[in-house]
Automatic annotation (TrEMBL):
Alphabetized UniProt keyword annotations: FAD, Flavoprotein, Oxidoreductase
Membrane-spanning residues: none
Region described as Disordered: spans on this chain: 145-182
Domain Phenol hydroxylase-like C-terminal dimerisation: 426-639
Taxonomic placement: Eukaryota, Fungi, Dikarya, Ascomycota, Pezizomycotina
Annotated Gene3D superfamilies: 3.40.30.20, D-Amino Acid Oxidase, subunit A, domain 2, FAD/NAD(P)-binding domain
Name this protein carries in UniProt: Phenol 2-monooxygenase
Comp. bias intervals (Basic and acidic residues): 154-168
Length: 641
């Protein structure tokens, strides 16, 4: 769904196929990071999810005290204050899926084709390097429960799509359920394929890619219930450890629900699994939570899972077939990261596919999907192993000895807080992230990334709280013309555009004013990056948008103190009043006026910051570094004629 949202923005032909006959109704993932909510907000869909969900503010740890049962040992913040305007939120995955179904339905162009089962995948290797061909061939079956458009002789041949997005939990299971009844077969030809088809990924198996890593045999239960309990922190997220009965992770949810992850103390075999029911699970929970009581009369959903950390050696096949989410990395659900990292995988590859397919960006950018997202997955698996040790502390002590050191929960959360919020993800240097210079004046780059322009060196010291490769932090600024406060992130919508943020500094200073005028002249020149990469029939901001944020007092500066290119003129609509902003105090909002300080930018001299379409920072430089910025874009974008 996330990748489909990008496809909508780039207006490229896309098909979404799913073997299931409906979206999920209950259960599955339920935690949303702050960063994921920021991404939702960039598509305009965060508000509904934010209002409905449970806001996870605090986590409590409960430990055993001799024979007296459990006691609260600490409270820690779920998320460090000030790193995002959103906090972690817990809500049913079905609500999240429906949010994106509704988003795609706004213009009626994209929808999920259900009961469509893939059966064969092949691609023409000799055509992989040619952009305007459809080298991927997927044969699918339309199961009888799903009516499609009329078919000639029961088969549609040669249907073409720029991207095919597979949403499929387990194609083998669907094959078993189909019972041989089909309405039609179809052959789909595609330029690219993105597979989000789960831990048993059919697509990954077609590519011959194994899952590598570790998996234990211990079974945990998970259930969504309306709890009947005298436990005082039942509406707080809690890590609960008994002396001998195991552990529980309690996660409050929307609509009075609580999710319990319960250590069952069983090894995985068919007999054990057959005996486990919601009643079995709640009895285990009652022992762990003693002397407090817990029971239920309503269970919304339940399941079983094993702890394991596994990853595929590759995230793509020839940079034409891409794998995302559980299809390439699996782990326990205790960090609340699975759905988030999966959607962020799709968010990362989605804009790159869109830009390549519509001819804006060079195909080289597609290789950065694996280098960027595989490292995130490796970091996630490392974090998951550490947190799994904490929750399985009794099993680990039995196995490795009573003196085995188990990390403290508060220290784990403190060490991981930015990563767990999704804010700490920083992509290494590549063609999409400029290199830096270390103290020895040596260029620092990611190891041997193909297509990297090593001549482009960024100057992060000019904005020392803006990390290259990370998403840019958001603070409130004022619209110069309207005096209205706005979050910086609200200017960076996921619409496929690059942004040049011109931190203009104090333009009342004569030297600084001259620097801004010279920058404006360079950007307005016929051979500038704005004109080079923008089609002649489109607005000047269609590919790269220039947004200006100055630091002079708002009432002492006019929009027309800035070069025209900073607020372009349209013959029918007039001047663009929504591209020049100021870091100044607001009339009715005390949070304004300190963005420069928080971002680490000089209020006098300012700087340039280039944001990718996914809000991650690609380049920082001085106002005079227009040539370096041109070289940065030259490695990525395709000149338009």
């Amino acid at each position: 769904m996330m990748a489909a949202a990008w496809a909508n923005q780039y207006d490229i032909k896309t098909r979404i196929i799913d073997k299931n006959n409906a979206r999920i109704g209950r259960g599955q993932a339920d935690g949303l990071q702050a960063r994921t909510l920021e991404i939702f907000d960039s598509f305009g869909v965060a508000e509904g999810v934010w209002k409905q969900g449970f806001h996870d503010i605090e986590i409590c740890t409960w430990l055993a005290r001799g024979d007296e049962g459990i006691y609260r040992s600490q409270r820690v913040l779920s998320q460090k204050a000030g790193i995002s305007r959103f906090t972690q939120t817990c809500i049913n995955q079905a609500i999240i899926e429906q949010t994106f179904v509704d988003l795609l339905a706004i213009d009626g162009r994209l929808h999920v084709e259900r009961n469509v089962l893939p059966e064969n995948l092949s691609f023409e290797r000799s055509h992989l390097g040619i952009q305007n061909v459809y080298p991927i061939n997927v044969e699918v079956r339309h199961l009888q429960r799903h009516r499609t458009s009329p078919l000639k002789n029961g088969t549609r041949e040669g249907q073409k799509s720029h991207i095919q997005i597979k949403s499929d939990e387990d194609a083998d299971a669907a094959n078993e359920q189909a019972n041989g009844d089909t309405e039609a077969t179809e052959k789909i030809n595609a330029k690219y394929l993105l597979a989000c088809d789960g831990a048993h990924s059919w697509t990954r198996r077609q590519l011959g890619l194994p899952m590598e890593g570790e998996q234990t045999d211990y079974v945990w239960g998970v259930m969504d219930i309306v709890p009947l309990s005298n436990f005082p922190d039942i509406r707080q997220a809690c890590a609960i450890h008994s002396a001998t009965a195991g552990s529980i992770l309690n996660v409050p949810r929307e609509d009075r629900l609580n999710r319990l992850y319960i250590q069952l103390g069983l090894e995985d075999n068919s007999n054990n699994r057959a005996q486990i029911t919601p009643r079995t699970m709640i009895k285990a929970a009652q022992k762990i939570m003693a002397p407090y009581t817990i029971d239920f009369k309503y269970c919304d959903w339940w399941s079983l899972y094993k702890i394991g950390q596994r990853i595929s050696p590759k995230f793509s096949g020839a940079n034409r077939i891409f794998l995302a989410g559980d299809a390439v990395h699996t782990h326990s659900p205790k960090l609340g990261q699975g759905m988030n990292v999966s959607m962020q995988d799709a968010y990362n590859i989605g804009w790159k596919l869109g830009a390549v397919i519509n001819g804006t960006a060079k195909p080289d950018v597609l290789a950065t999907y694996e280098t960027e997202r595989r490292q995130v997955a490796l970091n996630l698996l490392k974090a998951d192993r550490e947190i799994a040790r904490f929750y399985s502390r009794d099993s680990e002590k039995k196995q490795n000895g009573a003196d085995t050191e188990i990390p403290d929960f508060g220290r784990i959360r403190e060490k991981m807080h930015e990563f767990l919020a999704g804010i700490g993800i920083t992509y290494a240097s590549s063609i999409l992230v400029a290199g830096v210079v270390d103290d020895n004046a040596a260029a620092v780059f990611a190891n041997g990334h193909s297509g990297m322009h090593k001549s482009v060196i960024a100057k992060p010291a000019l904005a020392f709280n803006i990390k290259l490769g990370a998403r840019i932090p958001s603070y409130k600024i004022l619209n110069q013309a309207e005096a209205r406060p706005v979050q910086l992130a609200d200017l960076l919508k996921s619409d496929g555009r690059w942004r040049i943020l011109v931190f203009a500094g104090d333009i009342k200073d004569s030297v600084q004013s001259t620097r801004i005028k010279e920058l404006g002249s360079a950007l307005a020149a016929p051979d500038s990056i704005l004109h080079t990469y923008t089609p002649t029939h489109k607005p000047i901001d269609a590919v790269i948008e220039v947004l200006t944020i100055h630091s002079s007092p708002r009432t002492e500066v006019s929009l027309f103190d800035f070069p025209d290119i900073f607020h372009p003129y349209h013959e029918e609509l007039g001047w663009d009043y929504w591209k020049v902003f100021v870091d100044d105090k607001a009339y009715h909002d005390d949070d304004c006026g300190n963005a420069y300080e928080k971002l680490g930018v000089s209020r006098l001299e300012g700087c340039l910051v280039v944001c990718r379409p996914d809000q991650h920072v690609g380049y920082t430089g001085a106002l005079e570094d227009i040539k370096d910025m041109e070289r940065f874009f030259e490695a990525i974008l395709i000149p338009r004629v």
